[in-house]
Amino acid sequence: MKGSKWNDTQREKLGGKNNPNRKPVYCYDLGGDFIKKYDAAIDAEDDGFDRGMISKVCRGVNKTHKGHIFSFNKKWYI
User: Residues 40-49: pLDDT tens digits?
Assistant: First the structure.
């Protein structure tokens, strides 16, 4: 694994609920079924996902990450 994980202080400071750049992220399986909503990509790290890769999927650079599809929009269609 490259780099290091954020500690709780860093996460609260940069990924806190008051961050104006924070966007909700919606997670779907490859069949398009909704799995979970994260308040931000950084919150998905607790489930083993990489926030940078999630952002790439949401922006359309990559199609999937670890067998999941992510979107900034709640209504996503295959």
Answer: 998 999 999 9
**Cα dihedral: 49, 55, 53, 33 (round 10):** 60
Report the DSSP beta bridge partners of residue 28. 34, 69
Asked whether the whole model's pTM tops 0.90, one would answer no
Asked if 69 contacts 60 with a C-beta cutoff of 8 angstroms, the reply is no
How far does CA 68 lie from the centroid of its chain?
10
Q: Are 42 and 16 in contact (CB under 8 A)?
A: no
Rg (CA), the chain: 12
Return d(Cα 71, Cα 77) in angstroms, integer. Answer: 10
Which residues are CB-contacts of 22 (< 8 A; sequence separation ≥ 6)? 15, 16, 39, 40
